[in-house]
Amino acid sequence: MKTKILLVDDNVDILEALTFILEDVSYGVIPSKTGGVVFTVPKDQLPDLIIIDVFLVDENGIDIVSQLKKTLDRNHIPVIVISSNSQFKDEALNAGADVFLSKPFETEIFLDTIEKVLRKKIFSKISS
Amino acid sequence: MEKQVYSTLGMWRDYDVFSLKRLTLAFFLVTTFSLVQLILFFLTGTLKIYYTLYLVGVFLAAWFGGTRTAALTAVLNIVTGVVLFEPKIKTIFTDSIELFQILFYILASSVVTFSVTAVAQAKRYQTFTTNQLQKKEQHLAAEYNYIVNLIEAVSDGFVACDRDFVITYINISISKLLRKKQSRIMGQKVHDVFPETFVKKFQESYTKHIRNLINVHNTVFDWKFNKKWFSIHIYTRDKTVSIYFDDITLHKEHEKQKDFFVHAVSHELRTPITSIKLFLEIIRSSFKESLPTEVKTYVNKAENQLNKMTLLINCFLDLSRIERRSELVTERRKVNIISIIEESLEMFKFSIKYTIQVEPNMINWVYVDKERVTQVFVNLFSNAVKYSQNNDTLLIQLRSVGGMIEIAVTDKGVGIDRKYHIQIFKRFFKVEEKSYESYPGSGIGLYLSYKIVRGHYGKMWVKSKIGEGSTFYFTLPVYKNTKTDTDFIDNEG
Known about the structure:
- The complex is a heterodimer of chains A (128) and B (493).
- Chain A has helices spanning 12-24, 37-40, 61-70, 89-95, 107-127, and strands at residues 4-8, 28-32, 49-53, 55-56, 59-60, 79-83, 99-102.
- Chain A has 128 residues and is an alpha/beta fold.
- The mean pLDDT of chain A is 90.
- The model of chain B is unreliable at 1-16 and 483-493 (pLDDT under 50).
């Protein structure tokens, strides 16, 4: 089964480019411009990873992450927060994100980080 | 007329006693009195009346004229008596009662003279000193008001207290801010008058930087109260602690606006850069096989430019943070300095050869912001590479000096003329000489490095000669195994 990644960014170009890059390495991508989808995805179709930008239209990515971590049926999903402002690093990590990446990033690093985060989740799943 | 006058008992000096008016009056009185004495004697013929009057005369002379006048009066009287009663003298000396009476009178007059003079002079002295005191008091009051006006005018807020934190002075603006009367506040302790937010920071600063020191300047922290921001400066001098409140509300407002602007701009600039980068990556990786070589090269060049832009944006962001040292140097941790150096050298591995020399037995642990210190090394190394020839060696030396580690980075590049040794660390400074034209740069690197080092309470300087290369020195704090990391006095302010 393909690994599903939920990608949330209000910038259409970035959303498109990242989707392309991820699909190119065989990830399944659910792109979204808004964060609400994080909560509306049905339980049996939950993504394996969420990548979310901080600045969304009328929403704050970090708030969504905090909220997510309080939602029982999906708080186990690993989260990568991305933003062009590195000042949000601590806030994001404190809210429960696994990694914070600042834009712009090297594609290689982006993909590496995703791999690492997914692997960690698998190992923790196995060990629990 | 103020003169040194010896009083009867040698006790009071320095007072205004010699008054020509008074002396003339005394002389006049004594003379008149003596005449009266003589007249009465000739009329009554008795010595008793003479000598009673004699006592009164001496009294008056003592009161008005002092000891010397009284003594003079006494002598005059005795002489007159002797002259007048010459025939009677012989009988007086055979008649012991009369003799005793005369001796009694003479003794009594001495006592009277001394005591009366003493009392008179005491009174005069008292009046004099009271006048002096009143004058001094008025003078002091005027001086006090003058200084108070100065203090009230000079600072947005001023509080003075002693080493036990008992407030000895508080100016109007602060008492208004706290909504308490000045008179009620003075005499109370700082901890009982100011809110918790202030007391906590004040206590911290005091304990860290002042404590047992006698004269300390300018320990600073920021304090927010009632929507106003103050920059607090603490000075001590002997037993007094002075606290100045600088209203920086407007400044903070501007800072906030600037912050917002800077972050908005960087976000707006970085977002399109991100998408361009991603698209270039897609072009490169998706069409790897079918792309002609030139196109691949162009894609790479475009990406390099994007990376340059990113670096520049980061630099400018750093610049905007520089005003606040606390922002530039954030998470300090125990780090191994050698590992920072080796990591920083990674990207220069193929550009230059290097040697690292460490003083034997030196402790490698420093208490620093790893990311920022890496930035400093990368800056120095890239400068060294930029200004050196291909086969040159970079020398990195470390040694411990005081509680710091001193790092020296030496290159054999073009060198820097002595006159620029201070300026190169200034913002945007670039050497404007022909020989340097081929070395592009933003002029920010060394400035940032300098600020980062200062942010760690270290120092940075350069030794260099044209044609002989340069050595950049800087110091960083050693990691101390104590709870609070610094025992430094922040004199920079």
